[in-house]
## 1
Amino acid sequence: MANAALTEPAAGKRHSIGGDTFRILGGNADTGDGFTAIEYTGLPDVPGPPLHVHHTFDEAWYVLEGEVEFTLPEGARLAGPGAYVAIPRGVPHTFQVRGQSPARWVGLFSPGRYVQLLVDLGPAIPADGPPDFQRVAQVFAAYDTEILAG
């Protein structure tokens, strides 16, 4: 049986991907089919990930602050505070923060172990240098994620 958990506002392991940051809030990924929740802060008008599709996990996002443009099969959709975006496995997508200020949103990954994809992307996309595109492709492939466009 999994234990209940509370993550305080300043707690949670912090990571970065380029200039963006996220902290792992927690979840129940250790139970197998659980989830992991993160809080993500993205910088405006910085390119997001390439268009991609996850083949073995689902993700969902709830926007807290700012504006995030999600590119989905239906086209580009601007999501502001209070918007919820569900992206089941098999659905092509990407995102980019729009506007003049950073955006902050909560993400859920199910199964939760797939949040490790974001953790592993950090070293491939440093804040102070160009991305290592070969390493990015390797990380995506390791987590059953296919890059559809560069």
Note: Helices lie at 116-121, 133-142.
## 2
Amino acid sequence: MLDHIGIEVKEYEKCKLFYTTVLKTLDFELIMDLEIEGVGYAGFGAAGKPYFWLYRGDHTTPRIHVAFQAKSRRYVDVFYQAAIKAGAIDNGKPGIREHYHKNYYGAFVLDPEGHNIEAVCHLPE
């Protein structure tokens, strides 16, 4: 449905390092790192296609929620651990969220700028 999404961040370098570290656990990588007219852009994704962008600016307001798809529940767990280690704030430990559906396994953290970032797996165990 979506081709890509971008968020404006005040602490661009800090956020770029955070997402490079954390998204690696979901097999996403920094694909594009460029500057256009003095503005830094970092595009993260897989197979050469950036789906998630950061760009240097003020701050995306209000804060947003982004959920990244995980290949398994183990990926969700590793994402959460890496995010906390990288300085994220816990916003929901890994676990089943039955109110969404019986196999919804997710973890939530607040990134360096307070955005609610999630890793989710919809597969049974």
Note: The radius of gyration is 14 Å.
## 3
Amino acid sequence: MSLPPPIRKLKVCYVTDRKALAGTAAQQIRLLLGKIESAARAGVDWIQIREQELSGRELTELVRESCRRVPARCRILVNGRLDVAYTAGAGGVHLGERSMSVADARRFWWKRNRSGDFLIGASVHSLEAAQAAETEGADYLIFGPVHPTPSKAQFGPPQGLTKLSDVCERTKIPVIAIGGITLESVRDCVGAGAAGVAAIRLFQDAQDLEAVVRGLRSNR
């Protein structure tokens, strides 16, 4: 009698947005660092620092301080800035479709550090882009927006669960669903094959982050 396949632990990713926080620029950074620390303590696996308007120096300081505050099991990913991720000692870089290519990022890392655990991920909005990123060496994909969400409106209408399922079935690396993720919608995303979920407001606006993370993982 064959054993059932092991249940995968759902990957949970908090994507930051300091501009949605109250206060001056300095106050927003302080609040954001508190959110990052709380999210890591609540059990979030990855925290993607998506603060592209900061200068290279400001972003490096933010990433370095974030890495200092979170436990080793929580991975800090830097959106779009491989140089900052490398310099600040982050756990990976996340590339948009307009960022440098996954292949170039992989070559950069390989030339400078042949060892170490460093993830290179990519945001994709189509099956073709997903397959191209996988071929170039991406470790994971973030696909969306799956459901309507203000933060992803610039990428057009929602992709929906059918397209999410198609990407999950036709790629071999983990696919993280983003866009309108709630405690109610996570089950459908996992059912479509997603290895995890990513969100901004779900985590950043939460009053009880531990309850949110527990809810996501129990609602599979």
Note: The chain has nine helices and eight strands.
## 4
Amino acid sequence: MRFAVYAAFVPMILGAAGCAVSQGAKPAPASNDKGIAVVELFTSEGCSSCPPADAVLRKLAAEATKSGRPIYALSFHVDYWDRLGWADPFGKAEFTTRQQNYARGQKRDGTYTPQMIVNGTDEFVGSDAKEADRAIEAALSRPVVAAVELTAVAEGKAVTVEYAVADAPVGAVLCVAWVDAEAESRPNRGENGGAKLLHVNVVRDFRSIPLKDAAKRKLTLNRPDVKAGSIIAYVQEADRGRIVGAAATDVGR
């Protein structure tokens, strides 16, 4: 397990991003007969402890696809291990900031990789498969609060997303991510030099949008390459970080 002390903190767990607006119908209220599990993995190709956690996330994503259970896996690559000699091609400073904000909200002294956070509140070492299963089962047992509806249409590298949200808590934000379905890398330097690294649901574009009403809205995300992936959207309380609703839609090439 690797540790790094954060140097900056943005007051809210999620920042705002603009979007174009188009009016539409309000989605149906959330169903309380099942929960959702949003699994955020903070990882880095520069960290030798991370490949086992990447494998845990791949297994969770595959099992969710097979079972149809509402488990939404996202791989956020941080950039603070780039200093060890390998610049993670998927790493972004904004993902490091997101993890730092979680640490501050959870009153921890620093950040580490690999770290998993389920539904914004339950955090643990990302390679711990048993803990991941426990956290996911607990999340799925809790009622859904907010309903999210999504559609997405791709044209080249641009992905236009229409969404509608109902029953979101006051002050909540909608996190919207484009994730590459699969990714592969072969570092030639750093702690994983010479290894073949496999990733799933790699976050490449990420937006946080304040939810002020339940109108239907639209925004455009960018996928770096024209490849298959998904749009994953989830409602998060800006103060506590709790995730209370989610949806996803697949997008082809």
Note: The domain at 15-251 is CATH 2.60.40.2550 (Immunoglobulin-like).
